[in-house]
Amino acid sequence: MSDQTATTGSTDELLAELQSQVEAYERGSATAEYSPQGRILRANDAFAELVGADPAAIVGTDHRSFVSPEVAASAEYTELWDQLRSGGNSTGEFRLVWQGSRDRWIRSSWVPVKNRAGQVVKVVEHALDVTPGKRAAADAQGKIQAITRSQAVIEFDLGGHILDANDNFLALVGYARDEVVGRHHRMFVSDQDAQSQAYQEFWRKLGAGEFVSGEFHRYGKDGRDVWLQAVYSPILGIDGKPWKVVKFAVDVTEAKTRNADFEGKVTAIRRSQAVIEFDLAGTVLEANDAFLDLMGYRQEEIAGRHHRIFVDPAEAGRPEYKSFWEMLARGEFHSAEYRRIAKDGSEVWIRATYNPILDADGKPVKVVKFANDVTAEKLRNVELAGRLAAIDRSQAVIEFDLDGRIRTANDNFLRTVGYSLDEIVGRHHSMFCTPEYAESDEYLGLWAALRTGEFRSGRFHRLGRDGRDVWLQSSYNPILDLSGKPVKVIKYAYDVTEQVRLEQRLSVPV
């Protein structure tokens, strides 16, 4: 074998190996060859599929047909082909106007091929479809922009120093950007918190790549309180290690202030009233000390038991009791005075409200009862009612307004004067007096005194129906309102007509 044959053989083998490598590369890559003017000379199936064209029909097509008219007319596009024709390589991402569907993005490497004279004879493009990654990046970028527009965002290095903050965050804390960038996060916390072990642990966790979320108390400019619902999110590099921290936050200061106001009011109520909570079926969840003291139980003796332990068994068995809890479970409020039974069996009267508590969707989740002990008041009222009933049964009773007009009267009084109630209501007390007495200074003085709240009592001559004489042992009692002002007059009387007649007969000389 001559040296020339050996050299030729080696060259042929080298060309065959290079050709094999090119074919192997093209099998896994979208490849096209162009003339220096940008017309396709050849394209493999992968490239034809990428641009949405027939592999045979694509030859002779100008590259500019694959890009938008705006791109084709741009200076950058002209410079690309000038660069390639002059022998310079180029790499970049391009948006294709794809015939089959939405736009596609490709990342291409452009390599000019030269002849032995150094002239560019064609350009080879190796393209990769990066549309999914491009869309994912655009989606992620859109989401980040949406979050940035709607939330307060601030970035820190792993040591807690501020790198940047968006306008929402700056408006929230009242600082300008140059007042916070480079400073430490501790500018937003109290000195006590900044020196605490918990604060050091907070930044240790973030530096280790652990996210931290919750509700945080911070201070804005001039020390004003700011409450944030926030997430501190470590950002990982390509090596999987954190390199900065991004905080996304929502201002909850107003809600926190409102909740503090609510909690303060509830705390005040719980200090002053007996409070107990139930589930919607009536099972006890918890009760405060005032309720436990009122009913004589300990917490563990009632938790988990039904409300009926406080109710007379006869009442608990009625349909009305079942309906009562069904009403509360529907979210209906109930308020009244209730008779309840304490642990020792004693009777307890409470003035209470049963309040269904609703969730964010407006659905009842539990019932809270606020109660005041009115047992003593109830007993006192019962006693007073009993006394008034006894008086009503034994005495003649009539009520007047402060001008002396009749409001009502009981049966004893009506029998005494011989009228029906309809015949006297609305008329003046003077209907029971002689005309001379009704016009006297004494009579006018009586009502003037009563209007000022003065009590009057004595034996009074009055006229019944048809002008018959009636003598009454009476007391005129001004009734006062809560401020001590007279509002009406009640007269309690005994009929002493027969006694007066007897006295008159006995006083007549024989």
From TrEMBL:
The protein's name in its UniProt record: PAS domain-containing protein
Ranges for domain PAS: 153-183, 275-305, 397-427
PANTHER family linked: CHEMOTAXIS PROTEIN METHYLTRANSFERASE, CHEMOTAXIS PROTEIN METHYLTRANSFERASE 2
InterPro entries linked to this entry: Bact_Chemotaxis_MeTrfase (IPR050903), PAC (IPR001610), PAS (IPR000014), PAS-assoc_C (IPR000700), PAS-like_dom_sf (IPR035965), PAS_4 (IPR013656), PAS_fold_3 (IPR013655)
Residue intervals of the PAC domain: 90-142, 212-264, 334-386, 451-508
